[in-house]
Amino acid sequence: MLRHQFEDASQQRESAVLGMWVFLATEIMFFGGLFAAYTAYRYQYGAGFAAASHHLNMLLGAANTAVLLTSSLTMALAVHAAQVGKKPAHIAGLLVLTMLLGCAFLGIKAVEYHDKFVHHLVPGASFVWEGTLTRQAEMFYYLYFAMTGLHAIHMLAGVGVVLVVAILAARGRYTPQYHNPLEITGLYWHFVDIIWVFLFPLLYLIA
Amino acid sequence: MTTSEPTMPPVHYLNCDYSIRSWLLTQDHKRIALLFLVSITVFFLLGSTYAGMIRTELLTPNGNVVSHQNYNKLFTMHGLIMIFFFLIPSIPTVLGNFLIPMMIGARDLAFPRLNLASWYVYTLGGIFTITAAVAGGVDTGWTFYTPYSSIYSHTNVTTMAVGVFITGFSSIFTGLNFIVTIHKMRAPGLTWFRLPLFVWAIYATSIIMVLGTPVIAITLAMVGLERVFHIGIFDPALGGDPLLFQHLFWFYSHPAVYIMILPSMGVVSELIACFSRNRIFGYKIVAFSSVAIAVVGFLVWGHHMFVSGQSAYAGLIFSFLSFLVAIPSAIKVFNWTATLYKGSISYDAPMLYALGFIGLFTIGGVTGLFLATLGMDVHVHDTYFVVAHFHYIMVGGAIMGYMGGLHFWWPKITGRLYPEQWARLAALVIFLGFNLTFFPQFILGYLGMPRRYHTYPAEFQVLNVMSSAGASILGVGYMLPLFYLLWSLRRGPIAGPNPWGAKGLEWLTPSPPPTENFEQTPVVTEEAYAYRPEENASG
Amino acid sequence: MKHWMGFPMFPEQASSVAGRVDALYFFLVAVSGVFAILIFGVITVFIVKYRRRPGKMAVASGHGHMWLELVWSVVPLALTMVMFFWGAKLFFTIYTAPPGAMDVFVVGKQWMWKFQHPEGQREINELHIPVGRPIKLTMISEDVIHDLFVPAFRVKNDVLPGRYTTMWFQATRKGDYRLFCAQYCGTEHSLMTGWVHVMDPPDYQNWLGGGAEAGPMHVIGGKLFDQLGCATCHKNDNTGRGPTLVGLFGSKVTLKSGQVMQADEDYIRDCITKPNARLLPNYEPIMPTFKGIISEEGLLQLIAYIKSLTPPQAAKTGSETK
Amino acid sequence: MDMNEQPPHTRKQSAEPPGHRYEEGDASFGALVKWGAGLAVTVAVVVVAMWTSFDYFAAPTEKFPAPSLMAGARAPYAGPKLQVHAPRDLKEWRTAEEAVLNGWAWVDPDKGIVRIPVGRAIELLAERGLPPKTEVGGTKP
Lengths: 207, 539, 322, 141
Ligand code: HEA
Ligand code: HEA
Ligand code: CUA
Ligand SMILES: [Cu+2]
Fold this sequence. Notes:
The complex is a heterotetramer of chains A (about 210), B (about 550), C (about 325) and D (about 140).
Chain A: H1 9-44, H2 46-53, H3 58-83, H4 88-118, H5 134-170, H6 180-204
Helix pairs in contact in A: 1-2, 1-5, 1-6, 2-5, 3-4, 3-6, 4-5, 5-6
Chain B: H1 20-24, H2 29-57, H3 68-103, H4 112-134, H5 148-152, H6 157-184, H7 197-229, H8 242-275, H9 283-296, H10 312-339, H11 349-372, H12 374-380, H13 384-414, H14 420-447, H15 461-491
Chain D: H1 29-58, H2 86-102, E1 105-108, E2 113-115, H3 118-128, H4 133-136
Antiparallel strand pairs in D: 1-2
One heme-A (HEA) binds next to helix 2, helix 3, helix 13 and helix 15 of chain B.
């Protein structure tokens, strides 16, 4: 359905896609502030960060990376399915799969957060650290929770959007001619995945 | 002027629906522009009252009007409200929202619902700010420097930080909307180099709004986190570095000052062209300098930190780049001057504001060069010299541009003409009051009177009294347009589609324009500002 | 303060750099004046000469001339380069303390300045200095960011919590000059002011000798060094559990991580407050942290003591760091 | 045609094929990349130039006169004391007061006035009772 301010469907589609790319640029700058803080303190407190990173569960982190990469794959397949006119159930199925993988990611994250909570590694009054570089370790965990927390919020929003889009897809709303919402949701999802691809090495792999 | 007696179209975007719902849920970019006009005027009056109280207090060396902490709250709220709730939104959300679709021949912006969301987000942020102000205000300075803002201040810093955080998204939504609209929705034949320079300026501003605002959002979020959970990303006692905050804050806040000046530059280009009936001299150069200012503007933030403990090496780089960013501004001023050459110049109120802009922007700008000079900034940093610099370029520059634009497009927005003589008088009073208020502050600054001082040594009093006297004249000057523009809504003469005989697609529509702006999308065949049809270059 | 018809117009020049800062200032004012007059003049001529008159249409002025655009880009660029070089050169002069400058230690605290002379002289909001001698200030804050600003000397520098910042000046004229705090620091920011009293060297010596005092800084530092138990681990003959501190100040130290650091005031302060941040090879990190136990003044006195352990010619003041 | 005389609304839609109802031409990607690269290069040049010219700027211009020999002489010092360690000062003050309160000392050997510990003084007073006020001409309160 063509909105009144557009001349034709392709103009509307291009506008939607460009709009999402610009939005992703703002998200990059938004995460950028945290990445800048990370770089500043990693340069200053290299030793402390390395020591603190030991306590992160690399296995769970790697698992999460795999989960997200597969979810990007299923999302891409969903967008492709809409483009080539696959049946609504097919598209919706792929989207539900993407959503489930997203929830799996959040689940694993919750496990990790719980583990940090139990080990008193949450920055603030309750922070306990037996090594020599307490302050540096707390700074690492501050950044860990800030960056992965912000990412998790974006993941949560992503799961919500994919749910809505999956429902509309199931109702057959998306055809090869019109599937803008699906396409821009795909862009957003891939973005959130790429952010994690940066977070994982910076936080987990610096031991 | 059109020969026949101008008439108001029977149905237009204002009288097509009077219900509150039609205003509060409107998706018409013109109505959203008016919603913004009302909101930012409210905040301008609030910010000006704070300014008035500051100037009243500074009449005497010892602080006998308000307490120390209240004075600190005065300049903090004055700075915050004026910057985040008046000047940053002003031209983009009012003139930009109203004119961009019409100037490019479109029926509306690319995402009308996002545009309305931008106003609601702005208002929500405003409510947080008003709550913070009523609950006792904030005393950290508009710069929120840590560790004072994150640990030592006991005022409503968190509420204020949330308010500015939310309003930031209004800027992001507006910027995003403009970028997509200008790229994708131009009328046929309207290539990039036939666009009015106002559209170029708004495009450059939108780039900054979109790339800069998220950084201040995350920075203020971190300050909020530090206040709420007492964990120190900026707290030196816990290993945090207060300089990191300054870097993140100024990374946005310098580009933010270019958000404030670029739209005014766009307005001035339109006014100079129209009132001198001349093509803008060096159109492409002026267009590119807007974008150059926006891009290079991101690389100079360190010039606010020359004496903050930043390394001398960084100081060298930021000082050098600050001079580079000044060159496009210089080129613009020279091109505007050259446009007047062999023109046919009339002195209507918008033109007076445009000429006032060039004069005061030049003074504001060259004093920026003083501050960019390393050896000079050491002496004048955090003194009234800096206060004078940024008021000259923001109040003298940006507001002059905003006023000029408001008067120039007022007939198109309301269909009515404002009283010309009153407008010229107001422009003059503002110009005089302004100079009397802020020129003495240059001298005070070099004498060494520090900024944010509630009480000051007695020898500075004479200049401060002059400045306060100027402020009251300036206050009167600002009140005049408020009255006669409201008066013109009822009793102003009917304007007709093109009272100034200006070029631009927005003047093709009746005044006030219908909701959908154009029956059919116009086709553009000539260059911008083609006031002399005989050499109608292809462009 | 120079006055013109009763208006204060210009601050005194009371330091070695003041004259040069003012010279740069007049150059900048001149350049700005020239451009302002040039632009305002041309605009006035144009708006009068080309004012709108019936029948007089605007004449094509062309799209713009490349060479003209070039001229008014290159000329301002050249001028800005002059401003840049002159300003940068002056900046380094302002912030590079000459060797042999007299040390003064400054502690900024919410809303007062505490000055400490190496000889042990301590003052609040007042600083007595001899005329004609370069004075190097080593400054630190106990809470928020402050900024020591002496307009008559044309110098200022922020005072940070957790890190030393330095600045220097050489007073050239006797008299009393105001000092301000120039970085907003809270409620009584505008009261955090004081005076610099520039005196003739003999008067300064008398002032210095005016009354009994607990002893020069390095002596108090020595007492503190014993009191706090540093001496138990740091013996001058290097037989203690910690390294000898003789000759440490100003030397290059290689840490366990291989990183080489200059042992300046900041380094020593961090060793005392955050000992395990800088681990030394072949030493166990058994040094306790004294953070919160020793006040900023105490740290300055300990550092003065550790400095005094280094033979004079070996210690060189840190030049401007990159 | 001059825009002014053109009455509004009758602007005829030129015979543009329906497909072209908005401007397709957009900024060329190549130009943007070129400008971006140019900017990056200039910034790199500036950063390197500042690094190399750093030592030129840092070199002290005028030779400062060698510090005079007198500079090192440490004169005795005086002046108002600044409280460094409040608890320690308090402890010193208290010990001094205690000493006065409980110690034996000559106040004025010529007049034979001596200071005795307060405990002893209480005992003496208990024995002898308070001297009558008028007889000794008590000191002003
Ligand atoms: C609209 C807002 C605006 C604009 C456009 C500018 C423009 C500029 N500003 Fe300003 N500035 C502020 C608002 C603005 N500033 C604010 C709000 C602060 C203080 C924030 C705070 O601390 O609270 C500030 C502070 C500030 C500082 C920090 C001072 C300090 O705290 O110590 C510096 C230092 O370099 C600076 C420099 C400049 C420069 C070089 C320009 C240039 O872009 C100006 C270029 C313009 C010209 C040069 C004039 C036109 C040229 C000619 C007429 C030809 C002649 C020119 C040449 C010879 C080159 N500004
Ligand atoms: C968009 C930006 C904007 C605008 C439009 C203004 C407008 C004005 N500002 Fe500005 N100002 C800032 C942005 C702006 N300001 C910022 C960012 C700061 C720094 C904040 C900080 O340090 O954190 C600042 C700080 C600042 C100070 C320094 C305070 C200090 O450092 O202690 C002063 C002092 O005079 C001042 C004055 C004014 C005045 C008189 C106006 C006028 O243009 C407004 C119009 C004036 C009036 C409407 C006065 C009304 C008069 C009355 C109500 C009668 C009063 C009676 C007498 C005066 C006798 N402002
Ligand atoms: Cu200390 Cu302002
Ligand atoms: Cu700036």
